[in-house]
Amino acid sequence: MFQLAFKAGFRYFYNQSNPVMKPILFSLLALLLFTGARAQQNDAAAAETLSFKETEFNFGKIAQSKPVYHLFTVYNKSGKPVQIANVQASCGCTTPEWSRDAIAPGGKTDIKVGYNAAAEGPFEKTITVSYGDASQVLRIKGEVWKTPSTPAPGNAPVQFLNSRLQP
């Protein structure tokens, strides 16, 4: 029963001989195209506002429990001041620091990203920078190697030589 009603309604609204539906469908189609074109213009303008020197950094191999830092440089390519609204890390082991002041036109600022290498193994973390109506995702990655739990063993031959050289 529902299918018959749906088919009948579908035929009524999409019947080409229906003079009322043609202008409505044409108007809706024009509105969708205009909205899509406008959204693409806004995205392009937002993308041209801030420029990042790099969006990914590889720390390589780092020692466990030794915090490491990297500076991501941000340039304001627009003709007006832009303020970074928020910088959000994907987890608590990653800490971003940034200036809350607006970036002057043609100016630059740095976002300092720290990583506390507590867990052993490879890692990849994201940092989302929000500004205006846009955002940019930054990535840090690397590999944490486990530090030895005991100090290096003594070297007997070196100790022997040291004792012989001392008067």
Account of the 3D structure:
This protein is of the alpha+beta class. It has helices spanning 2-14, 21-47, 156-165; strands at residues 50-52, 56-63, 68-76, 84-89, 94-97, 108-115, 121-131, 134-145. It folds into 2 domains: 2-47; 50-145, Immunoglobulins (Immunoglobulin-like, Sandwich). The longest helix is centred in the N-terminal third of the chain and has 27 residues, at 21-47.
Which descriptors would you attach to this protein?
167 residues; 4-stranded antiparallel beta sheet; single chain; Immunoglobulin-like; 3 helices; DUF1573 domain-containing protein; Ig-like_fold; 2 domains; signal
In whole angstroms, the N-to-C terminal distance is 108 Å
Class based on secondary structure composition and strand pairing: alpha+beta
Instruction: Summarize the helix and strand pattern as letters.
Output: HHEEEEEEEEH
- Provide the gyration radius in Å: 30 Å
Helices, by number, come to 3
Oligomer: single chain
Q: What is the fold named in CATH at topology level of the largest domain?
A: Immunoglobulin-like
Protein name: DUF1573 domain-containing protein
Signal peptide: 1-39
Organism: Cnuella takakiae
InterPro entries: DUF1573, Ig-like_fold
Task: Please write out the topology.
Elements: H1 2-14, H2 21-47, E1 50-52, E2 56-63, E3 68-76, E4 84-89, E5 94-97, E6 108-115, E7 121-131, E8 134-145, H3 156-165
Region (Disordered): 148-167
Signal peptide: 1-39
InterPro entries: DUF1573, Ig-like_fold
